Amino acid sequence: MAALVRPGYDPATLAARDLNLHNIQRRRASSAISSSNDLISRRGVFSRRHYGSVELLPQIEADGSELNGRRFRVENGESLGEKEEMFGSPSTPVLENPEYQTRWYFKYFLGKLHQNYVSVDCDKVPVFLSVVLTDANDQCVSQYRAILWRKTGAQKISVPHTPNKPMTVKQILSNFPNVEKMEKGPKEIFAPEIQKDLLLLEEQEGSVNFKFGVLYTKPQQVTDDEMFSNEEGSPEFHRFVKLLGDEVKLKGWKKYRGGLDVKGDMTGKHSVYTIYEGHEIMFHVSTMLPYSKDNRQQVERKRHIGNDIVNIVFLDGGPSQMGTFNPSFIKSQFTHVFALVTHDAEADAWRLAVYSEESVPLFGPSLPCPPVFTNDDEFREFLLVKMINGEKAAFNTPTFAQKRERTLDMLIKDLHSEHMPDGRTTMLNRRAFSDVLPDAPRGVSGSASSRRKEETRQVEFVRFGQGLKVDTIERGDAPTSLATSGLFKRAPWEPMCFYPDFSQEVVCGDSWGDSRLVVATEQGVYIVNNDEHSGGPGLSQRTIMDKTVIVRQLHVVEAHGILLFRTDKMGRDNKLMHVFRLSDFEQGEQGAAPPLQLPLGRSEIKEHRLERTRGCHLYAVSRPGGSHLRVVVAIKNKLLVMQWRHSAAWTAWCPASDTDTVEGFQNLRDITVAESPTLITLVDSTLGGSAGGADNYICVGYRHQFDLVGERSGEVVKLHAVEGSRSHLVAAVDLYEDEEPELLLCYNHTCHFQKLSEARTTTEFDFHWNSVPCAIVCAFPYIIAFTQDSMEIRLVINGNLVQTMVMPKLALITSKNDIFFATTAPEFFPNRTECLHVDHKDNRDTMSPPASPHTSSPEARPFRLYRIPLHVLSGMVAPVDRRCPTPSPEPPASGCASNCPSGSGSPAAATTPNSSSKGGLGVPGVGGGGAGGGIGAGPSGSSGSSSLLVDPYRQLSRSCSSSPTPHQPSGSFLASKTTN
């Protein structure tokens, strides 16, 4: 042990650390399992095959002849991707692009004071621009919302508003993707009637309410003539129809009618109707529509069901009938999605399959495997969400998109000729947007009569818009209620308050175990604790470094028990990285003091400097789970690649021997790149476990491009160029698609998928955010963007929006395990500050953090730290580990044998008794808290570890596969109060 004593550490300090070593080991092992579980769900292998396989289905004619058929994507639980699905529970049903979020003009503009502009783009095509300043969700967060109306559709963005700094038209336009300049400067339209025209443009996005066909079929029926001629359904069919909604009388019906006659019973006397999440749904049930004995084709029934985009086909006769259906049975070029439903009487369960025309984009929720539902309410909700999402997705097929573009092109050209006649004089780009907001019209100069005239115009503008809004609601063309006849459920992304009253704005931070955060602020570095659920003392915070230590990046590496952070320039001290043992800040039993006297100042951290990192402005660490911890440090245009001398598996088996700090890092190589990086991400190879395996990569972002750098070779390859004059790089998230490394490159408003193996760039799967993110978190099946004042949640598989939550002064802290963030948004639970404990015990009273403000003043609102559990987002049900070890050089020789657990001379030997354990679950030290690899591997990453790895041929899906969201404890956000 004497050789392990570092300068400045006396025997008493080491003894104090040893007293707590068993607690550290226990927490580290627990964290390893949890981290492994969560990281696989967030960064695991995904495949778009989990949404079914595309198959060419033959077209069968009435005479039995077979013609070339249509290609459909088939989701029935039998495709390769679906069979690889690891969860047997159904996906969480989530509406994609919900109308009450995407219908921006109706919700945020209409009936409120806003501005509308007309212009001509560089292609000489007319466009319209609408801008409003809103106080989103009563959270005291002002945002500019802007809609750019083009023939290809409406583009929507949010831009933060800075008080006393109004934005110009050009500044707003510059935030839109691929909009550099206009051929003609925007001209403002003052006529109130423009609101009616823009509302018409928005209605082209698709219907707010839905009509779905429901077709009853008997066994051996293979033509739509036979299916439409069924006069009565079976008891199972009637049970299914009753499950869908309520039977209503059509004559005199006042609500959404879905094209049915409500005056003279011309389309039947009754139908089935329901409301789901504010959407009215009318079902065209084949057995309820008029039947004619003299009309073999049953034209009245086909006229409605054949013109529905989504049809439900109920197959009588049980699950054996599933394989007998072919979409070609239904002679309709309009129907793009077929949902096949049958009832298994023996199991009293519903079975579902979905056929989508191949041009329909992917939509969720993905079907469970097997696609069987035993709970009626869960099945109803899943089916309704699947059908609503399916119709929205179908609107993006060429059939509908081309028609919509032609309509929009015609409407926009007509509006342009109406509002921009030759010689018309109007106000050009002279006013700031705030000039037409409810404040006094500062931009209007002239006499008092001119100001009164402008005020009168504003009043008339708002009055006209409010009248339009009422008329739209009365027509049933707008969502009027969020009432639902389904089960009440909490959204899986609902945050829970971790710490209710923190006085400082968080600069950076990381999680430590399950109940602690290490956060850096301008006033110092703190450990924030919340262990009341584990029987601990509850809420507390401790100062571990004072305000003389300016920390800009921070990582807690629990696999090796170290705290790694980067400081800014402090006086004469240059920018440097520092390494501490976590045990230096660990309190002992009964609250005994940690080994070091806290808080530490600038002078106390000097001996922990990594001198090789002098002048660094950025660094990145390898994600947990690799065989070795690797760090890449940017010093101007040089990349310094370092590695921790011990592997994660070695440390897990011999934690008492891994006590290094700065001396634990080995310098591997220096790499020179073209410019000073603004973004670094380490990308692990999937083949790194084998000898001579593939090289790891470093994704480097600077200015207008992303490059890929070989970690071993140092070769630099251009990966992706950012077009346009504006370039704000946000993140490069490493993930895997069909076992192939892939990067999600995020810049400006855009997210771009880029495979490492493909030289060409495809934008097929690109999607855009409403606001420019500050940080990105990928939490399968969701991707979350954190902006200055909002959290935007989308699906990774298709980029569809599912939720926006507005929160002032929002800042992501960490997403290593669970997602932690800070905001001044209020918590939605009773005040618990009476159990709050702040430890100020130190000899530097001037360095203590100021008391948390307990005041109602909006300017002095405390920050609240929130947590989103990843297992709830991803639906993980068991700890699984499958990551491949990272290729690494042999670590230095170590005297591990004497410190390993009794009876095991080496980590590799110790794995032998557990080689039959499924996936290595429950084995101590599962990869040191990472998403994979090196489980039980020896110091050299030997092949002996393969006996503990999960079958490499079974991969984890990124699909929306999670059980219905469990009830969250009190203290979580209420979804109804945060929906934007």
Automatic annotation (TrEMBL):
Keywords: GTPase activation. Residues 904-918 have a biased composition (Low complexity). InterPro entries: CNH_dom, Rap/Ran-GAP_sf, Rap/Ran_GAP_dom, Rap1_Ran_GAP. Signal peptide: none annotated. GO terms for molecular function: GTPase activator activity. SUPFAM superfamilies: Rap/Ran-GAP. Residues 503-820 form the CNH domain. Residues 840-860, 883-980 are annotated as: Disordered. GO terms for biological process: regulation of small GTPase mediated signal transduction. Pfam families: CNH, Rap_GAP. Residues 198-415 form the Rap-GAP domain. PROSITE patterns: CNH (PS50219), RAPGAP (PS50085). The keyword Protein biosynthesis does not apply. The keyword Transcription regulation does not apply. Residues 956-980 have a biased composition (Polar residues). Residues 919-941 have a biased composition (Gly residues). Gene3D superfamilies: Rap/Ran-GAP. Belongs to the GARNL3 family. PANTHER family: GTPASE-ACTIVATING RAP_RAN-GAP DOMAIN-LIKE PROTEIN 3, RAP GTPASE-ACTIVATING PROTEIN. This is GTPase-activating Rap/Ran-GAP domain-like protein 3. It comes from Thrips palmi.
